[in-house]
Automatic annotation (TrEMBL):
Pfam family, one: BenE
Keywords carried by this UniProt record: Membrane, Transmembrane, Transmembrane helix
Region: Disordered, residue numbers: 1-20
Domain of life, per lineage: Bacteria
Upper taxonomic lineage: Bacteria, Bacillati, Actinomycetota, Actinomycetes, Kitasatosporales
NCBIfam families tied to this protein: benE (TIGR00843)
NADP found in the keyword field: no
InterPro entries: Benzoate_Transporter (IPR004711)
Transmembrane segments: 30-54, 66-84, 110-129, 136-154, 188-211, 223-244, 265-288, 308-332, 339-361, 381-402
Protein's recorded name: Benzoate/H(+) symporter BenE family transporter
């Protein structure tokens, strides 16, 4: 991946003299890249969102509202930012954040969870518009942040193999399809696994799918409530995951393709849309990383200056699909639990692998990273606060103690 241009995102308003007309920049490859981006998002990460909703005991209307909120938020922000900056800005919900909620959401009343979503969104917005983002990321050791994320994601990776005993043909077949596609067409690996798993489920354990109501989703407004336990156990880990594990790599992907992204504009804007969507169930909208590469690379268009259309395409499709979130809920809730386990696992496999590698990259910080990983993966809960926070706390404590000891030895 090489820098192919330098575009200062967010510095020149759309409609400037140097802008190309949008109709001249639209191309088939860019529109297709947006379609692939949305297909990948809804075929894998959405399963994690539904698992989190089930863990939080949300009803069908609340779950559909959650999908509506994250999809509309992602679509509007991605479309508008891509158009304004003329760079391919792809925004999405946080899959690691949803994974965090799978292990934590059920510990809090839903109104308190919504309050935590709102506080997290406000915090991300402040860190974005003030430029504190870089300072926060620098304050927490990278290994500890990644170890916390790896601990959150561990149960999903292990869940692939935990489901083998109840549906071996389905799980092994879907996993084999994922590996085969990963070898030859890596971009489509998760959708291929979902397709193969669906076919095998229909042939073995059954696939009782139904579409339910075909009408547009009616969002459910929830008045937020606030508690210290939810703020510490949900809002804090969600904020750190959003900034360190989503927005940081999201900016990295854009810069790797030569786009000099304005972090204040992009993170501040996604934070602001997250504030608006939080009362409808959204735990946050942030810069995408993996799917952003689909819209930022040469497959979207040979000319890097015309790839912003891919970001607009994905944004428009997010809005379209998200408007019918109730249909998606009805469709996906008919999937066997074993298929959900394997699809969620393979969808998060790359994130888990990257987090583990980054957690132990530096030898000096491995003790703290390991403590963070074990505590985060344990599922422990103290004083109503989930394991992600305790993993972060114990890891930071270990880091400080060992650093102080080693400093004294010098």
């Amino acid at each position: 991946m090489t820098n192919e241009l330098t575009v200062q995102a967010g510095k020149t308003p759309a409609g400037g003299r140097e802008r190309r007309a949008l109709r001249q920049d639209v191309s088939g490859p860019a529109l297709l890249a947006g379609l692939v981006c949305v297909a990948v998002s809804f075929s894998g990460p959405l399963v994690v969102v539904l698992a989190a909703a089930a863990a939080g005991r949300l009803d069908t209307a609340q779950t559909a509202s959650w999908i509506w909120a994250v999809a509309i938020g992602s679509g509007v922000s991605g479309f508008a930012l891509s158009w304004w900056t003329r760079t391919p800005v792809v925004t999405a919900w946080s899959t690691p954040g949803a994974a965090l909620l799978v292990t934590s959401l059920g510990d809090y009343p839903y109104r308190e969870a919504v309050g935590a979503f709102l506080v997290s969104a406000v915090t991300v917005t402040l860190f974005g518009v003030t430029g504190w983002f870089g300072k926060l990321i620098a304050a927490v050791p990278v290994g500890i942040v990644n170890a916390m994320l790896a601990g959150i994601l561990f149960s999903f990776g292990a869940g692939i193999f935990g489901a083998v005993h109840s549906a071996p043909t389905l799980v092994v077949g879907a996993f084999a399809a994922f590996l085969t596609a990963k070898r030859f067409v890596p971009r489509y690996a998760v959708p291929v696994a979902l397709l193969a798993g669906g076919v095998l489920a229909a042939l073995t354990v059954g696939l009782p799918l139904h579409l339910g109501s075909g009408g547009p989703t009616v969002p459910v407004l929830t008045v937020p409530a606030f508690s210290w336990s939810a703020l510490v156990g949900l809002a804090l880990p969600l904020t750190i995951v959003a900034l360190a594990s989503q927005n940081a790599p999201g900016l990295g992907v854009m810069r790797a393709f030569g786009y000099r992204a304005d972090d204040r504009l992009l993170i501040g804007s996604t934070g602001a849309i997250s504030v608006l969507m939080a009362p409808f169930g959204s735990p946050g909208v942030n810069l995408a990383a993996i799917t952003a590469a689909i819209c930022s690379g040469p497959e979207a268009h040979p000319d890097p200056r015309r790839r912003y259309v891919a970001g607009m395409s994905s944004g428009a499709l997010y809005v379209l699909v998200g408007s019918f979130g109730g249909v998606l809920v009805s469709l996906f809730t008919g999937l066997p639990k074993e298929l959900i386990a394997v699809i969620a696992g393979v969808a998060l496999l790359a994130s888990l692998q990257g987090s583990l590698a980054a957690a132990v990259a530096e030898e000096r910080g491995r003790d703290a990273a390991m403590v963070t990983f074990l505590a985060s993966a344990s599922g422990m809960s103290l004083f109503g606060i989930g394991s992600a926070f305790w993993g972060l706390l114990f890891g930071l404590g270990t880091h400080l103690i060992l650093d102080a000891r080693r400093g004294g030895e010098r």
